[in-house]
Amino acid sequence: MGDLTDRVVLHGKPPYTLMFLHGGPGAGGELAHLAEDISQIKGVIEPRLYSLSIKEQIDYLRDIIARTGQQKVVLLGYSWGRGWALCWQRPARSIFQN
């Protein structure tokens, strides 16, 4: 994935239809065990979340989704990631499936 390697971990094979959002800033990898289990069935995107504005985070995730060749993904948020998922759902509904 070129320059995405420090920003995202891809689990499994395309299509990457699920995106897992981890706990807090710097807590990347918290969902790796679950992502690995599910990646046997579906490809999972596990982005590293940084302290950016909501708009910057949406643009960041939109870029990752586009680079994986997807148009929409299903979000799964854990702890802090759950809050981000709820914040992004409305302003970025074009990239997240219900």
Strand content is 15-25%
- The tally of helices reads 3
Q: Low-confidence segments, ≥5 residues, pLDDT <50?
A: none
Helices and strands, in order, run as EEHEHEH
Strand line-up in the sheet with most strands = 1-3-2-4
Question: What's the story with the biggest beta sheet?
Answer: 4 strands, mixed
Our measurement of the CA-to-CA distance between the termini, rounded to an integer number of angstroms, reads 27 Å
Number of strands: 4
Structural class: alpha/beta
Radius of gyration: 12 Å
Bulk shape: globular
Mean pLDDT: 79
Give the fraction of residues assigned to helices. 25-40%
Layout: helices, strands, pairs:
Blueprint: E1 8-11, E2 16-21, H1 32-38, E3 43-47, H2 54-67, E4 74-77, H3 80-89
Parallel strand pairs: 2-3, 2-4
Antiparallel strand pairs: 1-3
Notes on the protein architecture:
- With 98 residues, the protein is an alpha/beta fold.
- It is 32% helix and 19% strand.
- It has helices at residues 32-38, 54-67, 80-89; strands spanning 8-11, 16-21, 43-47, 74-77.
- Strands 1-3-2-4 form a 4-stranded mixed beta sheet, sandwiched between helices.
- Strand 2, helix 1 and strand 3 form a beta-alpha-beta unit.
- The chain is globular and about 30 Å long.
- The model has no long low-confidence stretch (mean pLDDT 79).
